[in-house]
Design a protein that fits this description.
- The protein is of the alpha/beta class and 256 residues long.
- It has a single domain, classed as Aldolase class I (TIM Barrel, Alpha-Beta Barrel).
- It contains eleven helices and eight strands.
- Strand 1, helix 1 and strand 2 form a beta-alpha-beta unit.
- The radius of gyration is 17 Å and the shape is globular.
- It binds 1,3-dihydroxyacetonephosphate.
- The site of 1,3-dihydroxyacetonephosphate has 14 residues, from strand 8.
């Protein structure tokens, strides 16, 4: 049985004071919800403060990126050595990194290997563009991204994959649950091909793209979908808490 996971990707939002307030506002409510793993991914400058606030909490911390080198002359970059001890997860290969910072699958592959080497759990993002979706290329694109990003990686349950169709990110137009479930089942098949049946059954695969408290049930209720990577709604305590709560309720019922 995979424990559902809801991760909030705050992206480039919140200064230090706002991040501290946001996590303080959400912590008691989220700590009271069980049967779901909860993660917040603030901007780098707030990671340390958020980590301090969450000591002793079940709410976990993730980073939004890392550099694949351990240290050196890489101005402006953040190395895995700086993240270990501060966070458990790291988002890698987000479509915004691919689109605006020219991150290729090869770079994502290097970052993923580095994350695993330093004990950070990657949340690997994959997903197709609108034109690719319209041309029926979703499966092909996602398969290519997965195979290249996971090349020569020994897979384990530490890997999380997030299927985020680019056309659904920040647009208010979420995918439909049935479609997302089909893509995610396909992703699990690929992971099985790249590892083993038992590993593929342990890897959690999330949906991301315009998830809100009004549509989370459509995704969390699907058999192949193990939770969500939430952008905009993770900055609103009411929304994020409700998303986590509803996911927990669905999980309880599915275990009855
Ligand atoms: P939105 O939930 O704002 O669409 O963002 C999704 C996302 O990109 C999470 O990583």
């Amino acid at each position: 049985m995979r424990l559902p996971l809801i991760a909030g990707n705050w992206k480039m939002n919140t200064n230090l004071a706002e991040a501290v307030k946001l996590v303080n506002d959400m912590r008691p409510h989220l700590d009271a919800i069980h049967d779901v793993e909860k993660v917040v991914c603030p901007p780098f400058i707030s990671l340390s403060a958020v980590h301090e606030i969450l000591k002793g909490s079940q709410l976990k911390v993730g980073a939004q990126n890392l550099h694949f080198e351990e240290k050196g002359a890489f101005t402006g970059e953040i190395s895995p050595l700086m993240l270990t001890g501060l966070c458990e997860y790291v988002i890698l290969g987000h479509s915004e990194r691919r689109q605006y910072f020219q991150e290729t699958d090869e770079v994502v592959n290097k970052k993923l290997k580095t994350a695993l080497k330093f004990g950070l759990k990657p949340i690997l993002c994959v997903g197709e563009k609108l034109a690719e979706y319209e041309d029926g290329l979703t499966s092909e694109v996602v398969t290519g991204q997965l195979k290249a990003s996971l090349k020569d990686v020994t897979l384990s349950e530490n890997l999380v994959v997030a299927y985020e169709p680019i056309w659904a990110i920040g647009t208010g137009k979420a995918a439909n649950g049935t479609q997302a479930n089909a893509v995610i089942s396909r992703i699990r098949k690929i992971i099985q091909e790249l590892s083993t049946e038992s590993t593929s059954q342990c890897v959690r695969i999330l949906y991301g793209g315009s998830v809100t408290m009004d549509n989370i049930q459509e995704f969390a209720g699907m058999p192949a979908i193990d939770g969500a990577l939430v952008g905009g709604a993770s900055l609103k305590p009411d929304q994020f808490i409700s998303i986590v709560k509803q996911t927990a309720q669905i999980n309880c019922h599915s275990q009855e």
